[in-house]
Amino acid sequence: MSVLQLKSGGPLVREWQQKLLAWQLAHPSGTAEDCLDWMKETHSKHVKLESGNSVN
Questions:
Q1: Low-confidence residues of the chain: pLDDT under 50
Q2: Which pTM does this prediction carry?
């Protein structure tokens, strides 16, 4: 989970493990690099959504 800068354990790690399993099942011929690219893209979208929702 170093790609996402997550520490080991916790609910976020479990959530990403579930997402990764779903991705692997949906893309059986996908490479590790494909998966990492997907993780980075998905994570960056998630971060943008979170930062866009914080209004001061």
A1: none
A2: 0.68
